[in-house]
Amino acid sequence: MLELALFSLLNGLVFGMLLFMLSSGLTLIFGMMGVLNFAHASFYMLGAYFAYTLGASVDFWPALLLAPLLVGGLGALVERFGLRRVHRFGHVAELIFTFGVAILVEEVVQLVWGRPAKSYEAPAVLDFALFRLADNAFPAYKGFMLLVAVGIFLFLFGVFTRTRAGLIIQASLTHPGMVAMLGHNVPRVFMVVFGVGSALAGLAGVIAGPVLGTFPGMAQVLGSIVFVVVVIGGLGSLTGAFIASLAIGVIQTSAVALDLSLGTTAASLGLPVDGGGALQDLWRVTIAQVAPMLPYLLLVLVLIVRPTGLFGTRET
Question: Where are the beta strands (DSSP E) in 83-212?
């Protein structure tokens, strides 16, 4: 039981930090531009596909650097020549535009790489067990994923709290007019932040592709959960995105590992269970089966108690 709890916690941390890499870019984009970018998960998918293609020519490690740069550059172009032009028409136009970009990216991916999943694998140098407990092994590649995600978190924290560029970005989030009057090019700041956010999503795709799979629907698998993370944490709050990512990662991963039925769980908590009533089929459902619903249940509960999210100031 102790081994199960430990591995569930580690896998939850890996998944949670992966969610943070995705949600951090989305949080920055919303905080600065007020845009919920529906195409954000599509950049995550492009990162995996670009790394798969580059890895066939230049190996995994150069692809780890090049793929996010390519995705970031593409994101900057989308902001500069697309999103910036529709920004003056309001938030509805922005949402429709990013939704259209998401559909376009998915269709292009299927056109270029096909519908079947790709055999994008982790590098051989990381194909071993980092440690073992009983009959369970924790892969070294998952440890690498966790290390990269923690490094990204520390990098973002350092940039936003210790550098002049970070101060300009934070000021642009709340007082863009004042920043422009001080001589800074706010539209360029927007473009850079959008590109960096897209690059973070691409990096998440590069390191998650070998574990979660590289296929045309991978953006849809994590896309909705990323929006749940951003809303729970609070729109525009990096701290909230970090805490919400870890919470959802640990909760969902731990729930998947539990093979207990809802009836057994309710009985252990002292709740009345009618095994022969109208809810008899519901009590037989296991916690692992309802695990995909837990992030959305947590979203509903948080919005009931605090509509702005845990650390947000904007109404959702």
Answer: 129-133, 136-139
Give the pLDDT confidence of 4-25 residue by residue, as tens digits.
778 888 889 999 999 998 888 8
Listed residue (203, 172, 167, 204) closest to 189, CA to CA: 172
Query: Cβ(13)–Cβ(146) under 8 Å?
Result: yes
pLDDT in tens, 206-257: 999 999 899 998 998 888 899 899 989 987 788 888 899 999 999 988 888 7
Q: How far apart are CA 255 and CA 232, in angstroms?
A: 19
pTM as predicted:
0.88
CA–CA separation, 309 and 316 (whole Å): 8
- In the three-class reduction of DSSP (H, G, I as helix; E, B as strand; rest coil), residue 275 is classed as coil
Paired strand residues for 129 = 139
Q: How far is CA 158 from CA 112, 166, 201, in A?
A: 38, 8, 19
**Sequence-distant (≥ 6) Cβ neighbours of residue 263 within 8 angstroms:** 273, 275, 283, 284
C-alpha–C-alpha distance, residues 207 and 213, integer Å: 10
Longest dimension (CA), the chain: 72
